[in-house]
Known about the structure:
Blueprint: H1 3-12, E1 24-26, H2 27-31, H3 34-42, H4 49-64, E2 68-76, E3 82-90, E4 96-100, H5 107-120, E5 125-131, E6 134-140, E7 144-147, E8 153-155, H6 162-173
Parallel strand pairs: 1-3, 4-5
Antiparallel strand pairs: 2-3, 3-4, 5-6, 6-7, 7-8
Amino acid sequence: xxxxxSKIMDFFYFSHVKEKSEREIYVTDxxxxxxxxxxxxxxxxxxxxxxxxxxxxxxxxxxKYGFKIEVPIEYKLKNGYVLHGRVDALSxxxxxxxxxxxxxxxxxxxxxxxxxxxxxxxxxGELLYVSNNTVRSFLVDKDNIQxxxxxxxxxxxxxxxDDVLNNYANMYLEKKLIAHLGQCKECWFKDxxxxxxx
Length: 198
Ligand code: SF4
């Protein structure tokens, strides 16, 4: 590996990969289908360097406008574990922003943002999609998801509360957190997955 590539990898990938400590669960652990993670591990998909570079660029800009970035959150679960997460950006009036580099909104993203909103006691949050030549965003509250691009409003079907978080955390620890958000229809692996619920 050339020295410039190793510098890029160190900064934009390895510095983001953190060893999980004992009794720690990440918000993203609860958002993703565990079977999907298995498929990713078996595939040759390159680590998310591009996504991390986009995050870094957008966060650097938001910092200039008074946002906090990489804001840690934690939530104590009943089973003794602690749920951890890092909000990409938090506005001065406590609105969490999640930056994504996919072209489409995904139910896992809404879940992740809703967990941050729950822990931070925020009434709304924003999903910001930065991909190729487009920047779009969706405003999320407990009832609705609204595209700021088209104005279209969708019903928000995700509910986050203490019971949901504890239930999903236990399913995760039992390795049973599969297709729990109804995310199969938009999953890349649905055609070869025996657990797909279509
Ligand atoms: S098809 Fe459904 S169950 Fe299978 S990996 Fe994808 S999200 Fe998970």
